[in-house]
Sequence to fold (599 residues):
Amino acid sequence: MAEATRTGRARTGRRFSAAAFARHRRAFLFILPALTLYVVFIVYPLALSLWGSLFRWRGLRQQGFIGLDNFVRLVEPPSRDLLFGAFGHNVIWFAGVMLLQNGLGLIFAYLLFRRGRGTALLQSVFFFPAVLSPVIVGALWKLLLSPEGAVEAMLSALGLMEGRLTILGNSTYALYVLIAIDAWNWMGLPVLIFLAGLRQIHPSVFEAARLDGAGPVRTLWSIALPLLVPAVSSLTTLSFINTFNQFDLVYVMQGVAGNPNYATDTLVTYFYRLAFGAIGAVGITDIGLALALGSALFLLLTLVTILLIRFFERRTVQPA
Amino acid sequence: MTSLALRHRIGQVPGWIVLLAWAAAVALPLYILIVSCFKTTAEIYNDKFGLPSAWTFQNFISAWTHVDFGRYLLNSLGVTGAAVVFTVLFAAMAAYPLSRYELKWASPVLAFFLAGIMLPIRLASVELFTLMKELGLLDSRLGLVFVYVAIRLPFAIFIFANFMRALPRELEEAARIDGAGEWRVLFLVILPIVRPAVAIVAIFTAIAVWNDFFFPLIFIFDQDLRTVPFATMSFIGQYRTEWGEVFASLALSMAPVLLMYVLLARQIREGVGAGGGLK
Fold:
């Protein structure tokens, strides 16, 4: 009897581990295709880039280990001005997107929310530019903003401007025009995310605010916004990552050198020139600098993203 | 109508004006894009906002023949279609055990994948270029598919894992007792239930891949293998003064996305509200 129990237990024990092994193996086989592609085409090149930034390069050939020399060259002349210029543009871009895109987006979302469910068409219109290729958005706005284009005609008709509109060639304003176009492009994103967040807030919260005599502005600022921290968090993080990866709009509208005179240059357009060369100057690349810039940008993005997520986690209000 | 309700209605007017003003800011540039396609370049210069004096398709015909648009459309369709199919397939396969098996290593592996949502892969494009060259995947549509699937997998796995985690455990246990293997459980039991997740992943993968021009820019040198956005960009560089044709080429490359958007607007709105990550 005791004998039988013991062998029985041993047998189920062994069968269990065999089943567990089969389950692990099956799980692994299911994950394998995704894991392979992800490691080979994303993780491996990224790791090589980080590692490679510590070496000297001749063309695409890796040479001796030089420690942080590439990073030092990056912050010294002649690279220095381009680097800090581009970095400054990215910072301004991020601030502009937060204010224009996410700020206006919150207001639009709140207005749509207060008007209930009959606004589906408007929401779809607001989001439409976000599904367009940056090539279409950039080229369309470039045509509209060019001399003798539609914007010029409109401003002249309204008596706001005389003569030719050359704002994309103006080194003071071109950057702000691009930021506004980027906000136009992605406005639907904060609108839809804030709207989804507002709908998750219990109606009694708004009812209580109304009974306390809070107006719409106060309700949005003091009641809704603190409850929208998860949405603010993901939009801030997303905007940060996207802004510091900004390349498409600049490339299509102002060229890879961020015309005029690097006034719209960003870190990724600078990276692209270092890695693949500028138009008309093909071959003048500096892989060491490119990898150093890429690695620095990667570390900056990772660090700030983690800090942002932490910052907002602590400010998330649990609705009572 | 009571005076209170009336006052409420009137109070909503400024808000409506703001909303309609933004709708106009979105629609007006697109309106100009559409009407300009049918105008001659001279007409575009003279009258920007009116309807064309004669609706002619000449711009579309010239743009189509100058760009060899049909070929690029097929390239884009092929690359996008393959990327969507493999992203959905591989992401669902990976998300299934990671979200539904009891495995100690599931959550670190899931976190490893999800980190990819924010990895700036463009910054690794030098090493990626070298890798593609060694694998013989430069100038290859298949190479583009591999890269796109790898880029889209983290977001897709995130969406699938979230949807699958919410399902009751009895679901696949009943199927297993009936003798269904794991493949059948995944494809015949789980996937049909998480159809909304399949829709979100497919739609946003399709949009992102269809619109991308960065990777063709660095990996494709053969003109015949270009995709639509990339081909459109080089076309507008070459024919920059032929405004009618440039507008027509933009409209042509926008048409498939517009068609999809009209058909799937609701799913796209809900998907953005649920998932957020589009870019």
